[in-house]
Amino acid sequence: MKTALDPRISEFETQEQADNYDRWFRAKVQEAIDSKKPRLPHDEAMARVDRLLEERRKQRAAG
């Protein structure tokens, strides 16, 4: 039986959907933790985001 969730409390319609998302999310987090890819420091990541946002602002202003 699927347990319906209150839309004021959860973005999911059923507990099953919430549980499936939770499992998927935890797996993605663990995958990132286990990754051997080089880490990106927070300051560098935010600088990249700032540059991208500034580019978008300029594009929108130009046309």
Question: What is the compact description of this entry?
Answer:
Helices cover 65% and strands 0% of the residues.
Please characterize this protein's 3D structure.
The chain is mainly alpha-helical and 63 residues long. The chain contains two helices and no strands. The chain is 65% helix and 0% strand. The N and C termini lie far apart (53 Å). The chain has one domain (15-62).
Task: Write the topology of this structure.
Layout: H1 15-34, H2 42-62
Taken as a percent bin, the fraction of beta residues is under 5%
How many domain units? 1
Major β-sheet annotation = none
What is the residue-averaged pLDDT? 93
Characteristic key phrases:
about 60 residues; mainly alpha
